[in-house]
Amino acid sequence: MDTINGEGFLDHAWAQGVFKKIRHKKCDESRPACVRCSSTGRRCDFSQEHHLQDDPSPIQSIQSIPVLLLLRHPAPNLDLTSRFESIQSLEFEFFTLICAPEYGIFFETPFWESLVLQSAVREPCIYHAALAISTLTRNHYFPTSHWYDPTTGARSAAGYSMMQYNLAIRYLNARLSSSVPNRNLTKLTVLTAIVFINLEFLCQDQVSSSRGSWIAMHLRGATCLLRDLKSRFGAQPDLDSEYLESGVAYLRRQAEQFMIRDGLQ
């Protein structure tokens, strides 16, 4: 049974099972198929009104979640000018114009586009996950036989996407290791889990059972954190938390359909 630790933050088992791991792909596929499906959970609408607030707490070490950490130093606040280079620039623009608006449609509220886009600009973990989602989506619409990124050495869209996925995991771990657990950081972690689930739905080159296990772990973790938010701050209505909770519930239903379709239940 998933539990929340004494600090009201991440479950120890979930931490070891999810964010301590690096996501891998089969390395023998130069051009894996990437099929976009209705259960990817990607859609939004840009609004300045709703977003996760920056962590108001001072940056310091968290003793309550040491098992999470792959990086022992804070993730730098990446400058936009350093992000928008070569393929990264192209992929983030594609995410902004094509992928992000899909969250608002999928979750049936414009809140989600604002939430994802603003978080991607501020948080490296969301930014790199967005690059991974954009790469797989764009490769589906515009497949390229000769794919190469000189910056990372990736020779396929799937390979580049997996690199960005791993970077997202590392940056989230660094963010968690350098900040005091609080409401906003917990919400950011739930949002990251939602985006990771969306990404897993896109990883069609992976064995279904492998994707299913990752999706299930992210769902369990997000559910745990939402339960903690409700128990600690239930008396204080919070729009962000309500949207995150409905998003996780919707993805859970999509995941159940995925499991049934692929005979994993």
Automatic annotation (TrEMBL):
<dbReference type="GO" id="GO:0000981">
    <property type="term" value="F:DNA-binding transcription factor activity, RNA polymerase II-specific"/>
</dbReference>
<keyword id="KW-0238">DNA-binding</keyword>
<keyword id="KW-0805">Transcription regulation</keyword>
<dbReference type="GO" id="GO:0003677">
    <property type="term" value="F:DNA binding"/>
</dbReference>
<keyword id="KW-0862">Zinc</keyword>
<keyword id="KW-0804">Transcription</keyword>
<dbReference type="GO" id="GO:0008270">
    <property type="term" value="F:zinc ion binding"/>
</dbReference>
<dbReference type="Pfam" id="PF11951">
    <property type="entry name" value="Fungal_trans_2"/>
</dbReference>
<dbReference type="InterPro" id="IPR021858">
    <property type="entry name" value="Fun_TF"/>
</dbReference>
<keyword id="KW-0539">Nucleus</keyword>
<dbReference type="InterPro" id="IPR001138">
    <property type="entry name" value="Zn2Cys6_DnaBD"/>
</dbReference>
<dbReference type="InterPro" id="IPR052360">
    <property type="entry name" value="Transcr_Regulatory_Proteins"/>
</dbReference>
<dbReference type="InterPro" id="IPR036864">
    <property type="entry name" value="Zn2-C6_fun-type_DNA-bd_sf"/>
</dbReference>
<keyword id="KW-0479">Metal-binding</keyword>
<protein>
    <recommendedName>
        <fullName>Zn(2)-C6 fungal-type domain-containing protein</fullName>
    </recommendedName>
</protein>
